[in-house]
Amino acid sequence: MPFPGANVEMEMKTRAFTLIELLVVIVIITILMGLAFPVFQSIQTQAKKTQAKNDVIQIVTAVNAFYTEYGRYPTTETTDVNATYGTGNSSGLLFNELRGKTATLNTRQIVFISPPEDSTQANPKGKIGSDGQFYDPWGSAYALRMDADYDNQVANPFGGNGGAGADPIRQGVIAWSLGKDLTLGKNGKFTGSDDVISWQ
Fold it and tell me: How would you class 120 by CB atoms within 10 Å of its CB: exposed for 0-12, middle for 13-18, buried for 19 or more?
């Protein structure tokens, strides 16, 4: 036992990682990230589909509320085909009416729908853009069709055998999102597609 004041050399060992150990750890982390990324993508895709489903239901509810308030749909068109918006026919004026921004059809300027707005972008994701259209989480304008001839039916955009119900659909208004691929259906059918619809 050393006594006080004795000069004793103590051996200290230090432990460090070798290059092989560091490479093994990096490979393991890379593999774990590779496994986690698809799961994260799947969760993100499902969240976007849920948001789109909520949005199309909100759109249908807003148009039906307009109908309840005014006894007519928020369009001056007289055929269902012409009262199809968001697919080649801009829905900007329609959403301005539903948001109470204009008083052409919504004379009391009642707010029937109030989605977030980003007027700095032409097609923001999940918001109203600078053109007044309501965009889905993938950046495509929501499409909707109203019963402009008031026969309580509208044509199914997927047809009668596309897996999205009968054609015609016995509702006054329908809405849909084209999904991530930004195209209507998969091979012309709803079955197997990433589209989101309000009527199922």
Answer: exposed
Task: Give one word for 137, left, alpha or beta, with left for phi > 0 and alpha for psi -120 to 50.
Answer: alpha
Structure tokens at 121: 């972008």
Residue 181 has pLDDT above 80, yes or no: yes
Q: What's the whole-model pTM score?
A: 0.79
For tokens 């329908």, the residue is 174
Q: Return the beta strands (E) in the chain as ranges.
A: 84-85, 143-146, 173-177, 196-197
**CA gap 37, 45 in Å, rounded:** 12
Report whether 162 contacts 156 (CB < 8 A): yes
What residue spans define the domains of the chain?
A: 20-197
* pLDDT attached to residue 111: 95
Please state, in angstroms and rounded to a whole number, the distance separating the CA atoms of residues 199 and 64: 13
Closest by CA to 89, choosing from 107, 98, 104, 76, is 76
Sign of CA dihedral 169, 170, 173, 175: negative
Cis peptide before 137 (omega within 30 of 0): no
- 45-100, pLDDT tens digit by residue? 888 999 999 999 999 999 999 999 999 999 999 999 999 998 778 888 999 999 99
Residues 6+ apart with CB under 8 A from 30: none
CA 197/CA 53 separation, integer angstroms:
7
